[in-house]
């Protein structure tokens, strides 16, 4: 049962991720990306990482996708904008070469990976729970956690400063 669910989620994830790239309408592309995030959350649930699945849905499928849709609709990327966009042959070749190099690096990184087997004697069912995640996050990874929080604070201050209106400034 779990294996069939895994294969179903995997095929749906790959199909929707492919449709994100192939889709010509940017709104459809964002909607396929939302479905991709939900299927990845399904994989997290299968891995017994319920907290990570919930955070993935809340942060990515919720907040980030609303932001993407807002930007796309704000920029008014409709069918009229597609007529003026022309890609040169050089950019298509560069994209193909970059994708091929990325695929080569991924294959090289995964060639020596050994898949660990399931051992019921050493299996810990609480491995993906919030308590264990908090212990690891605040002991082993305290410095990267604090640096990420400072980075987010700087990004928020920068966004406020960029969005602040000065007196006499006109926004079109």
TrEMBL record:
Tell me its family: Belongs to the complex I subunit 6 family.
Where in the cell does this protein reside?
Answer: Cell membrane
Which keywords fit this entry according to its UniProt record? Cell membrane, Membrane, NAD, Quinone, Transmembrane, Transmembrane helix
Instruction: Report the catalytic activity.
Output: a quinone + NADH + 5 H(+)(in) = a quinol + NAD(+) + 4 H(+)(out)
Q: Which domain of life is it from?
A: Bacteria
Under the heading Gene3D superfamilies, the entry gives:
NADH-ubiquinone/plastoquinone oxidoreductase chain 6, subunit NuoJ (1.20.120.1200)
Q: Which residues cross the membrane?
A: 6-23, 30-51, 57-77, 89-110, 141-162
Protein name as catalogued: NADH-quinone oxidoreductase subunit J
PANTHER family (UniProt xref): NADH-UBIQUINONE OXIDOREDUCTASE CHAIN 6
EC? 7.1.1.-
Q: Note the topology in the membrane.
A: Multi-pass membrane protein
Q: Which InterPro entries does the record match to this protein?
A: NADH_UbQ/plastoQ_OxRdtase_su6 (IPR001457), Nuo/plastoQ_OxRdtase_6_NuoJ (IPR042106)
Job description of the protein? NDH-1 shuttles electrons from NADH, via FMN and iron-sulfur (Fe-S) centers, to quinones in the respiratory chain. Couples the redox reaction to proton translocation (for every two electrons transferred, four hydrogen ions are translocated across the cytoplasmic membrane), and thus conserves the redox energy in a proton gradient.
